Amino acid sequence: MKRILLMLLIAIAHGIALYNIIFINKQGRIVYVPYNDIYYYLIVASIFLLITIIYFILRKALLVDKSVLTLYFGYLGGIVVFLLFTSLFFTKSDFIRRGKNFFLIALGFILITAIISQRRKKLSFPKRLEAPVFIFLIALTAYIVFSISGIFPSVGLLGDEPHYLLVTYSIVHDGDINVRNNYLNQHYHQFIQGKIGVQAVLGKKGAPEFYSIHMPLISIYMVPFYWIGNFFGGAFLLFCVRAGMSLVGALLSYYFYIFLRKEFLQETALKVCVLFSFLPPVFFYARQLYPETAIALLSVIAYMEYTKGRKVLPSLIAGAMPFFGAKYIAISCGFLLVFLKDIIIKREYRKMYQYVGWFLLTGSYLLYLKIMYGYVIPTAQYQGKTGEETVAGLIINYIFGLNWKHRIGSFFSYFLDQRDGLLPYVPVYFFAFLGMVWAYRRARHRLFDLILIALPYIGVYSFLTHRGGFCPPARPLVAIVWIFGFFLAFFYEHNKSIPFKRAAFITVCISIAILAYLIYDPLAAYQATTHHVLERSSTLLKNASNFYANLSYGFPSYLKSQPGYWYANYIWLAILFAVILYYRRISQHLHQDSLNAGLKIGFLLGAYVLIILQFSCFPQLTLRGMNYAEDQQNGIRVYMFQKKATFSSDMNFNYTSTKPLTFLIESKNELDTLVISFNKPQHMQVRVHYFETPATPYFTGNNRIIKLAFTYKKGFYYYYLLTLEPLCPEPTCHFGFHLSMRGVGP
After folding, report:
1. How many CB atoms are located within 10 Å of the residue 516 CB?
2. pTM of this prediction?
């Protein structure tokens, strides 16, 4: 029976492939299908063969029941769904990309099903792997291996990183932290290409002194790694920088695991530590030259020592935090609130001397500001030498000058914004909020301590409407993400609800898939969110969208530069709060598994088909955020794929580049003819491609007349994809052209 079913699936799949090759290409204007060779059939056959081989390998390796075998055949049969839509694409590269997506989706679901089928067996790890030192070594190895991708120019030092390293350069080569000469002489070219802006302000003595707006402690830490890298030079310098920060990230994993083992069962501690260490944001920031990871490490150590009854070391660590940046004063003060709470509740007023380290180091920080900038105010490192009246004005502006709507939006953006929020990239952290329910019931003192540490930091950050800038997502939360990891452990330790346990597993799978994509395309994690940014859509969601479904509309966005309502913000907040309240009500009751095998199979196959439809069955293209020229009278838009193309409202275009220019014409009416009127030097030629087919135009002077033999239709709109390939010997080509179109006659 199984062999007959497998042969039937193969016959159906190959039959659809042959049908697409032979017949659909003859349908003219209905849809564009560039099946001019046998490669299409070979790709389809290869995908089917690979999935079949993987299925039989897993079937041999695992003892699975009939329901799991049914799922495997369902996943194998998904290629039929994929083939039914393969005629809907613009280019062969789009089809190949969708074929890869389909293969990865099928492989992912097969692996997930294999894991689910084995979950009845209790997972066990070798005792050595459960030791904290092995957690440290595994994390360090993973971070350093991932850091290798960070030494290439495309994903080298980005955002604030070169400015931190420039301070290190000044310490090593000049023996000071005055970066005036380093910016003037562009010493940053030693480790970054191009030109960067100046992030420095005047010191107390005026023009001779320029100090970085970033506090120097993390730059001082990087000195030995910079020295070693500079000795060998080249890409090894950036590798040493990444390795130095990877050491901090690995230590964070090490101490966080020790902390979890002290509070939870070993299985829970290991599970949560793995999720914490190898998912964003820690996995990305473990190699980034930012102080957030170091602050997270120090915070874990300080609070762990505090829970052991020690007071001196936590107070010293908390007092030193402002030397990493003014924003960490809030975390430092949060620890002070925890210390004061402990003193008041236990009435240990005579032991206040144990916290004197906090006051000494905080006083040292304020003295540092006075010596370097001339006055004592945390914003001194950002404003430089400023008169007292200006300082007072700054304080008033910070308190009264910012929009409260932006402040509230900034608070929620740290968790929900699709460009840089925590939950869209690591949805498993939502269950940390459910873990707070258990923390309130089982360890209320821990809950209040951690809220006192985290809330001032998030509150000040959002009060000033600060965002992460051009960096990986969730930067504002990296310093305190260990707190969410701690509450996540509460959920895994105490949760009794099978549906919520299953939902947590699904979010882990989604988080791993997002991580895999961001490793494949690291630049997709870097997105600006400051005042000048006008685009709400994240790169991740744009790449996950297709021509028919734009996922970015369904996710929250809190950009300050975009006024008006974004309904997904309110929908997500309502859903999340409703789920938390519902879980609070039912969490103490034991919920058995109420789904039978048939419903489980139906759910998995339904999710499988929906994901295939989203990522494999339609062109992976979204028009949101693209520049376009519009002819409103004729209902025509021309979307430009290259930003170097300029245009006016009368369909006149200018382009300066040697790269091909691709544009998509959208029309309410079907078009028959396209006329391209070039205004260019006579010796330069431009090759025209219609979709991926070289066009055979008619010539009348500088005009190219192209017959639009086929189209891509979506709803009431017709689409035409054209590419202009400039052929010129010069390093840079410049040409202008005008587009005019004629519709299909009666």
Report:
1. 11
2. 0.86
